[in-house]
Amino acid sequence: MCQSSRGALIVIEGLDRAGKSTQHARLCQNLESQGHRVNRMRFPDRTTSIGKSIDAYLKGESEQEDHVVHLLFSANRWEAATSIRAAIEEGITVVIDRYYYSGIVYSAAKGRKDLSLQWAREPEIGLPRPDICLYLDISTEEQAKRGGFGNEKYETSAMQERVRELFYKLQLLPDGQDIQVIDAGGNVAGVEKDIMERVEQMMADTRLAEDLRNIL
Ligand code: TMP
Ligand code: MG
Asked: Considering only CA atoms, which residue is closest to atom 15 of ligand 1?
């Protein structure tokens, strides 16, 4: 596969237990074996000082007001924004496990009138926009079959159901243009193939658009 001059920004999204980490790892390996240079990232990035506050909140070790924690998640992306942009400009493909789509949806899923999808979107405006967001969709029943949940803050079936509904609602809003739904209920290899096909199509479209720009 020939590379376009800039790297792509690819996001994998989905509910907890949808298989994001596995598919993230496989996609990165597949792209590397095709000759792409790849940076792997994930949010929340729990290694920074903001990330450590988020980690403590998710583990129930600290309390945070809902708007505050939303802004911490957003700030955790903003602290990486410059390096994401630099990598892409250098021709490196950046593949991220969760991004602002989770940011918007999980906060809005708390169901507060003063924390709507629209409100939650505002601090994310200006972050590097992905070329594609692959949303790994699984039913809440399938999610439960996959060994239930861990002990973190949002890992309850009520919260996950609201998150799933809001991921669907988000697809009807402007950010929805970037989202492609992947049926992640099937076997790992099938999901991997589906993801790779969508990514290759996106890259071909991007190259075509670039070629056209160069001609015109
Ligand atoms: P993780 O399981 O991928 O490490 O993510 C931890 C939790 O944080 C998960 O339940 C989703 C949630 N989350 C947000 O609430 N806002 C965000 O901006 C991100 C990236 C994740
Ligand atoms: Mg998790």
From this structure: 106
